[in-house]
């Protein structure tokens, strides 16, 4: 009988998750087996937990969930030369084909055959995960696990912030969830002149100030447009970094974007919505860029540089710790808006 392990599984096409005993994965020739030290919850996991329209249209249960993972390599396939057995690694969640036109032209982050761990293939809310060797990013052995587990998600912040030139610029970050908070820290490290932030959670608005925002406002209760226009001498902001996906925040952000400004958009909207295309983009001559995942592997090198140099301190971000089997409490905490990142351990 095959050895088994405990895992958190999306077992059925309905809300919720469950703990199951499942077989320990068998690796392929180009894969490694990673013993999970920790995982963290992402917004994508909330979609899966709630079984919204996106999850229902994408996933095919049963699937082990979780894609923000770090751990130790305990086995590797016959074709694998790196990482070494025993290496402490963080995982890139997008398993790409390396063969399509996007992969072959430096656009692997939008590979047309991408498999996302925890969505399209088994993920890391488990004791072990099998993963393509190139997706296992070696860490210094002394890197704190709370930082190692964030690197995949931190990459979203790095990719977004590096998409525009933030040096000496006035920057607006809309949405102060964990990725938004990390984006504020990156913008500060890059050398933004001033950083403004908006959210609807008082907890995260305060968190944004601690992560480096010069001004953090409630997106509904505060007169955001008037306050930021006053703070920018009527000009508005040079760069919009949109992390929320909220239609009202997107409208607010583009209203504050000055002519000739840049916008990098990571937030995923709940569906189609009305948008003032002419005044927000065309007549402003705005430069707009959609952000998906992390550039492979440029973003990982940038993130490593920010962390190891001390330019960005991610230590405050993990605010709650739970055992893997306490996933219901963990998801409740993440949904509350009264947390940073929530970490799970097997």
Which key phrases capture this entry?
346 residues, 6-stranded parallel beta sheet, Quinone Oxidoreductase, Chain A, domain 1, 12 helices, 7-stranded mixed beta sheet, single chain, alpha/beta, Rossmann fold
Report what the structure shows:
The chain has twelve helices and 18 strands. The strands form four sheets. Strands 3, 5, 6, 9, 10, 17 and 18 form a seven-stranded mixed beta sheet that branches. A six-stranded parallel beta sheet has the order 13-12-11-14-15-16, sandwiched between helices. The protein has a three-stranded antiparallel beta sheet with strand order 2-1-4, with no helix packed on it. By secondary structure, the protein is of the alpha/beta class. The longest helix is centred in the middle third of the chain and has 13 residues, at 178-190. The radius of gyration is 20 Å and the shape is globular. The protein folds into two domains: 4-150 and 317-345, Medium-chain alcohol dehydrogenases, catalytic domain (Quinone Oxidoreductase, Chain A, domain 1, Alpha-Beta Complex), CATH 3.90.180.10; 156-290, NAD(P)-binding Rossmann-like Domain (Rossmann fold, 3-Layer(aba) Sandwich), CATH 3.40.50.720.
């Amino acid at each position: 009988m095959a050895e088994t392990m405990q895992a958190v599984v999306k077992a059925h096409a309905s809300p919720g998750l469950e703990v199951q005993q499942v077989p320990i994965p068998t690796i392929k020739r180009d894969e490694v087996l990673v013993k999970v030290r920790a995982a963290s919850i992402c917004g994508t996991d909330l979609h899966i937990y709630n079984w919204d329209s996106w999850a229902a249209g994408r996933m095919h249960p049963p699937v082990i969930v979780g894609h923000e993972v770090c751990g130790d390599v305990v086995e590797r396939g016959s074709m694998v030369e790196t990482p070494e057995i025993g290496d402490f690694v963080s995982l890139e969640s997008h398993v790409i084909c390396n063969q399509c036109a996007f992969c072959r032209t430096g656009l692997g982050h939008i590979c047309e055959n991408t498999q996302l761990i925890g969505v399209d293939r088994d993920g890391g809310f488990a004791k072990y995960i099998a993963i393509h060797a190139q997706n296992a990013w070696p860490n210094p052995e002394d890197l704190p696990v709370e930082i190692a587990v964030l690197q995949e998600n931190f990459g979203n912040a790095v990719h977004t912030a590096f998409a525009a030139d933030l040096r000496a610029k006035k920057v607006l970050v809309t949405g102060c969830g964990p990725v938004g908070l990390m984006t504020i820290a990156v913008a500060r490290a890059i050398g933004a002149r001033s950083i403004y932030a908006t959210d609807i959670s008082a907890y995260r608005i305060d968190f944004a100030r601690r992560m480096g925002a010069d001004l953090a406002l409630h997106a509904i209760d505060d007169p955001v447009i008037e306050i930021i226009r006053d703070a920018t001498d009527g000009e508005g902001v040079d760069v919009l970094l949109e992390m929320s996906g909220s239609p009202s925040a997107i409208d607010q952000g583009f209203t504050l974007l000055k002519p000739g400004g840049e916008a990098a958009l990571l937030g995923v909207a709940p569906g189609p919505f009305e948008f003032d295309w002419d005044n927000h983009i065309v007549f402003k001559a705005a430069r707009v860029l959609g952000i998906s995942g992390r550039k492979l592997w440029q973003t990982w090198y940038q993130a490593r540089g920010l962390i190891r140099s001390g330019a960005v301190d991610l230590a405050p971000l993990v605010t709650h710790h739970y055992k893997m089997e306490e996933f219901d409490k963990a998801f409740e905490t993440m949904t509350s808006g009264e947390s940073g990142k929530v970490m799970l351990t097997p």
